[in-house]
Amino acid sequence: MINNLNLLVEQMKIGVILTDRQLRIEYANKFASTLLTDSEIAIDGSNLSDFQVLSSNHVIFELSDCIQAQIASGKNNFHKTLIIKTEKTERIVYFTGQMVNGVSDALLLFTVADISGEMECIAESQSIFEDKHNYLVNKIIGHHETIRQIFRKIIQVADTGVNVMILGESGTGKELVAEAIHELSPRVRKPLVKVNCSALSESLLESELFGHVKGAFTGAYRDKAGKFELANGGTIFLDEIGEISLGLQVKLLRVIQEKTIERVGDSKSIKVDMRIVAATNKNLKELIRKGLFREDLYYRLNVFSIEVPALRNRANDIPDLVKYFIEKFNKNHSRSIKGINRQALRILMNYSWPGNIRELQNMVEYAFVIAIGNIISKEDLPADIMIVANMEKALNDQHLLAPLDQKELLNPISRNTSGRLKITKDQLEAMLAKNQWNQSQTAKVLGISRVSLWKKMKTFELEIPD
Ligand SMILES: Nc1ncnc2c1ncn2[C@@H]1O[C@H](COP(=O)(O)OP(=O)(O)OP(=O)(O)O)[C@@H](O)[C@H]1O
Ligand SMILES: [Mg+2]
Questions:
Q1: CA within 13 Å, CB half, 269
Q2: With a 6 A CB cut-off, is 281 part of the ligand 1 pocket?
Q3: Which of 178, 303, 321, 454 could potentially form a cystine with 237 if both were Cys, beta carbons 3.0 to 4.6 Å apart?
């Protein structure tokens, strides 16, 4: 038995070393010799403190001191991650030591496991995490703790195939989150198919999702694959999920449960494999209570949920977002706006952003059209933002930047509303085009009356295109 044990210990892929109190080696198996000397030559008789050992931060480490200290402190076992350095290699090892009794004169038993491979894996997974994190940092702007938490959640859930529900007000970036989940998932080489569930009537949405066969309904001239089929192997993003009818909810539940679909007008089952990422700005629990959303579907879709915060709850991210959009529009509009002045920024940080980041993005684009100089100032902000920012909390918001002088805030509005809006023909034309030549809308955005707008258009000889 003892002989057999000896054979076993010799074959172990863990170094086993027995020493006396002075750390003189009484026995070391082959693996221990390999780790300490790169060869299987017996090291019995040498001393453990002869081998060069580094601590994990590469400081030369006196193993004997450490062991002696452990002995002196009365502890009878210890473990430590160390680096063993030989002429050829440097290995990360997990070292354990313990006091033993009754084995000849030996007092100490050590084991040494080579964990270099595991450490590489950890480093690799850390670098994968960093790559994913970098991708997110460049795509979703924001440093607020809620955003950092969203990054962690996206990275955590992307790899799994589970369905995800994204909640948040309109314009908060739900679609960006859905895209990131797909991009960072193993499904990335297959399509991400987006469907806005609120844009179509019930029957059109059904044929959009499930496809149809020729003759299924008036106008179905040929067979057509639905979005579920197109998303096969990939991800389907069901935006505004709170808007789908109860009838379609039952059908969606069946797709999730059975992983098959039937095209409208056909009874043939088609297998589909897709991950569902859904989004809504509705309170689904409330809809469930009112009987407008099925609870069973809710749980199937909401396996994992991500809530995207409203911009007003992370106003400190506004400067970075503005900078990001300025860079983006500089490229798109071939301009070289350098930034925004503090005063204008304060106004933006005090505004409540009901349309969230989409509204902020539109605002920066508006300022691009309006701005005469290369720094965006309060004169370049839309009148509605000025009015609301002023009325809401610009004057007494404690946790944001110091509020502005009321006169400063009111000034541009009175100037605008009195018709003294400084705008060039190109700027006005761009504003009208941006608002689909809707004059009431454009007048509202500019903070002038429709009549003033009409007069300006006449002065510039601007006419609504056919
Ligand atoms: N954190 C962010 N960083 C940069 N751009 C953002 C961020 N969040 C949103 N955006 C931009 O704002 C716009 C609105 O975002 P998105 O469409 O993702 O919002 P949403 O929540 O889906 O809105 P809705 O509910 O209205 O569909 C997009 O142009 C998006 O690129
Ligand atoms: Mg959206």
A1: 8
A2: yes
A3: 178
